[in-house]
Design goal:
The protein has a 4-stranded antiparallel β-sheet, with no helix packed on it. The chain has a 4-stranded antiparallel β-sheet with strand order 3-4-5-6, with no helix packed on it. It is mainly beta. It is built from 1 helix and 30 strands. Helices cover 6% and strands 53% of the residues.
């Protein structure tokens, strides 16, 4: 069952202008890189107009996203999920689907390049979610759905002898929209939020000494789609979940576990909100929950945090049909800057947004040449300053899995006039 969506609207004049500006900035950054490597200088000539007074130069920093191929061995990269090791150099790990071989794969970045391996050869591997244990060797865990047919929820983890997998829940059609989080201390208990399609509900499963236990969190039509789980960073590591609920005119909901059971509330009451919910908790008390998501009938990118007076919502990007496949992380120190990777269908682009002192800022990570080129995005931040954002995503033109990292940027002086000289 697909999520109801409005049909694509044609590009507005502003959207075309934004695409042109983005392309121009990308071209300018490439010129600057070449100039930096060759020692060439950009010349700012004086205008011949009498009495002309040039305005003061303004220094700006052009950010550059560096992209590379992770895996190109067939049709790969769907349901990409990214996690970074907590110590430098913050090696990246990606779980994803190998559609060619109907398998679950895991790739990790080394100083000499990317390596990949098959985790589960007998799985369609939908809705993968990866997390790493907090101490070396940073053991990877993956939650995933086995796809159409059995449609079970499974959990896999790395051991000295290789990958081991187990079934978490097979009671009906379960496991889609899986989201995994690990407790931060030994034994790094895995918790999974997921959709129970058979019973129309959101479920939570966790591993105990005697095996897996599960419980129903909330029920109703569409309840549990786009589940996103996070654990409080101090004992008892309270699980909290953002998800979609509310029936046909769905909205964003939030649940948290107490000693008496689960409590739920509506985080955004507006209809047609909550798609692609991505939940993160502030790392210090009171561990404020924040959610990035696509919302309202206009398909904007929204951001909401739970304050003392309730949920407070902000519009991050409203320029066209944006916010699809939103994925978010918070910087580890005050002001806990949120970073969001998401898809702009209007501009056919993969974008990155972050909140600055003056408000939200956005930039283009990659441009598409046709509908659906850059999808299945997953963002993570390095856990040490400057909290570099990194994104795993699928390039659907080449059916490859790719990885992008935000570079340090280059200083330029404006106004800048580029000329060709004989």
């Amino acid at each position: 069952m697909e999520n109801p969506r409005r049909p694509d609207a044609p590009l507005t004049q502003h959207a075309r202008y934004q695409r042109l500006v983005a392309s121009s900035l990308l071209a300018l950054s490439m010129v600057l890189i070449v100039a930096r490597g060759t020692g060439a200088r950009a010349h700012v000539p004086a205008r011949p107009d009498a009495g002309f007074r040039p305005r003061p130069a303004e220094t700006q920093r052009v950010r550059v996203w560096l992209s590379e191929v992770v895996d190109e061995s067939g049709d790969v990269g769907m349901y990409a999920s990214l996690a970074l090791e907590p110590t430098r150099p913050h090696a990246a790990h990606v779980a994803y689907r190998d559609s060619t071989n109907s398998a679950l794969k895991h790739a990790w970045r080394t100083p000499t390049g990317w390596l990949s391996e098959t985790v589960d050869r007998d799985s369609r591997a939908e809705f993968t979610s990866v997390a790493l244990e907090g101490v070396a060797p940073f053991t990877a865990h993956i939650a995933y759905n086995t796809g159409f047919g059995d449609s079970d929820l499974k959990h896999a983890w790395w051991t000295a002898g290789g990958w081991v997998s187990e079934t978490v829940d097979r009671r009906g059609r379960v496991g889609r929209h899986a989201s995994l989080a690990l407790a931060p201390t030994h034994p790094f208990t895995p918790h999974i939020a997921y959709w129970d399609q058979t019973n129309n509900g959101l479920k939570h499963a966790w591993c105990t000494a005697g095996g897996w236990a599960s419980e129903t969190v909330d029920t109703g039509q569409y309840v549990g789609w786009y589940a996103s789980i996070a654990l409080a960073p101090v004992p008892p590591y309270t699980p909290q979940i953002a998800y979609l609920g509310g029936g046909l005119q769905y909205n964003l909901r939030f649940a948290w576990r107490t000693s008496a059971g689960w409590l739920t509330e509506t985080a955004d009451m507006e209809s047609f909100t909550g798609r692609y919910a991505s939940l993160t908790l502030a790392p210090a008390p009171p561990f404020t929950p924040c959610v990035a998501y696509q919302g309202n009938a206009e398909d904007d990118l929204l951001y909401a945090c739970r304050g003392p007076g309730g949920w407070e919502r902000e519009v991050v990007d409203s320029d066209g049909d944006v916010g699809g496949q939103a994925t978010m992380a918070l910087a580890g120190t005050v002001p806990y800057t949120p970073h969001i990777a998401y898809r702009s269908r209007s501009d056919q682009a993969l974008k990155h947004a972050w909140r600055a002192p003056g408000g939200w800022r956005t930039e283009v990570v990659g441009m598409a040449s046709f509908e659906g080129l850059l999808r299945h995005t997953s963002l993570a931040l390095a856990s040490t300053p400057p909290y570099t954002p990194q994104i795993a995503y699928r390039d659907e033109q080449s059916d490859n899995l790719r990885y992008a990292r935000r570079g340090p940027g280059y200083q330029i002086l404006l106004p800048l006039i580029l000329r060709t000289h004989p």
